[in-house]
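Tokens as discussed.
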């Protein structure tokens, strides 16, 4: 046996080791967070994308019976100031006559204003019916000439291959004459 003594850890050494371990772990965690943050931040939408997330529309200049098209998130949105006859025709349709049953009341917040995404639900074409001289189909609303889908004055599919009604985007009235889509 050798008379060499083995060194033993003193309480001072234990405290120093705990401090080094804790400080190394802390620096490692902060370094990892700083390295990962740019990757996480790059997944946030760009400023130009956020700017397109909502669109405000002034309804005041739109005459009764007139339609306009605005762009929201790169898609056309049809805004129509419906006449009393168009509202009456839309409300008179029975749910049994519809391919995608939905009441007119469920599609509008105020009966005289119809706001919907103007993209045919069959293959993504843009239906005709926004201009006064456009064909409006058999039901007085919109007509997609690509495959013959007919929409009524509430944007509901009535005839043709389209499986769904023209979608209604989320929108709110900021004032009586201004809406915010999105």
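Sequence:
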């Amino acid at each position: 046996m050798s008379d060499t003594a083995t060194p033993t850890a003193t309480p001072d050494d234990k405290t120093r080791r705990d401090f080094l371990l804790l400080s190394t772990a802390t620096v490692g965690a902060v370094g990892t967070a700083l390295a990962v943050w740019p990757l996480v931040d790059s997944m946030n939408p760009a400023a130009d994308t956020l700017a397109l997330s909502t669109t405000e529309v002034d309804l005041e200049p739109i005459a009764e019976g007139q339609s306009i098209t605005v762009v929201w998130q790169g898609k056309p949105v049809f805004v129509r100031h419906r006449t009393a006859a168009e509202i009456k025709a839309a409300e008179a349709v029975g749910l049994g006559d519809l391919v995608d049953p939905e009441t007119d009341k469920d599609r509008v917040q105020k009966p005289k204003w119809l706001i919907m995404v103007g993209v045919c639900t069959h293959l993504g074409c843009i239906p005709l019916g926004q201009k006064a001289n456009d064909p409006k189909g058999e039901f007085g609303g919109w007509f997609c000439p690509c495959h013959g889908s007919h929409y009524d004055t509430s944007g509901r599919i009535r005839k043709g291959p389209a499986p769904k009604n023209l979608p209604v985007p989320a929108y709110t009235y900021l004032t009586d004459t201004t809406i915010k889509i999105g």
